């Protein structure tokens, strides 16, 4: 499995539902969401995503989850190509980034996190393996360990079955 950054800029997208989403996730609810994935087409069910707040303080990582649906095209006339790519995922951790983040941007400036470009302009950036391993370890220390949501396991099995049927 790989891990990817999902970028949130409150200057571009206010996200008024964030406090409610965070409350529900922290209460143990399996909250599903859809997010633009930039140009990334290689994201698969079961891959990890980490949400990164940019452009306004507090900057940093504030959520994580698992992909349940690979990138798909959504018609969007504001894009030159006429569509945008989106993924579906389930959160396994989320805080209200209007209040705080789990890992501040400054903490990502030190090795081994510093090998990664964190200030991506769009979502879908692959997190490099050296940074990913350290990130998963630090994330678990700060947020605790949780099992993979059942919806993710089901999505992974469905994707495997579809690949096997097409082979």
Commentary on this structure:
The chain has 167 residues and is of the alpha+beta class. It has a single domain (3-130, 139-166), classed as ph1033 like fold. Helix content is 25%, strand content 29%. It has three helices and seven strands. Strands 1, 2, 3, 4, 5, 6 and 7 form a seven-stranded mixed sheet that branches. The mean pLDDT is 91.
Defining key terms:
167 residues; alpha+beta; ph1033 like fold; seven-stranded mixed beta sheet; 3 helices; 7 strands
Outline the fold blueprint.
Blueprint: E1 3-8, H1 18-26, E2 32-36, E3 48-53, E4 60-75, E5 83-94, E6 103-104, E7 125-126, H2 129-143, H3 150-166
Parallel strand pairs: 1-3
Antiparallel strand pairs: 1-7, 2-5, 3-4, 4-5, 4-6
Q: How many H/I helices?
A: 3
Strand composition percent: 25-35%
Summed over residues and divided by their number, the pLDDT gives a mean of 91
Order of helices and strands: EHEEEEEEHH
- What is the number of E strands? 7
Q: Low-confidence parts lasting 5 or more residues at pLDDT below 50? A: none
- How would a crystallographer describe the biggest sheet? 7 strands, mixed
Distance between the termini: 21 Å
**What is the CATH C level class, in words?**
Alpha Beta
CATH architecture classification? Roll
What is the total number of structural domains? Answer: 1
CATH topology: ph1033 like fold
Structural class: alpha+beta
């Amino acid at each position: 499995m790989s891990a990817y950054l999902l970028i949130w800029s409150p200057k571009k997208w206010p996200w008024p539902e964030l406090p409610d989403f965070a409350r529900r996730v922290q209460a143990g609810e399996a909250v599903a969401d859809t997010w633009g994935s930039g140009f990334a087409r290689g994201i698969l069910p079961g891959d990890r995503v980490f949400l990164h707040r940019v452009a306004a303080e507090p900057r940093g990582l504030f959520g994580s989850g698992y992909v349940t649906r690979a990138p798909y095209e959504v018609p969007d006339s504001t894009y030159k190509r006429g569509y945008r790519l989106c993924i579906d995922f389930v959160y396994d951790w989320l805080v209200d980034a209007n209040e705080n983040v789990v890992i501040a941007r400054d903490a990502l400036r030190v090795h081994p996190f510093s090998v990664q470009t964190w200030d991506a302009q769009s979502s879908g950036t692959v997190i490099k393996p050296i940074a990913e391993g350290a990130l998963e370890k630090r994330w678990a220390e700060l947020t605790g360990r949780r099992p993979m949501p059942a919806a993710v396991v089901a999505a992974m099995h469905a994707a495997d079955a579809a690949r096997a049927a097409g082979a």
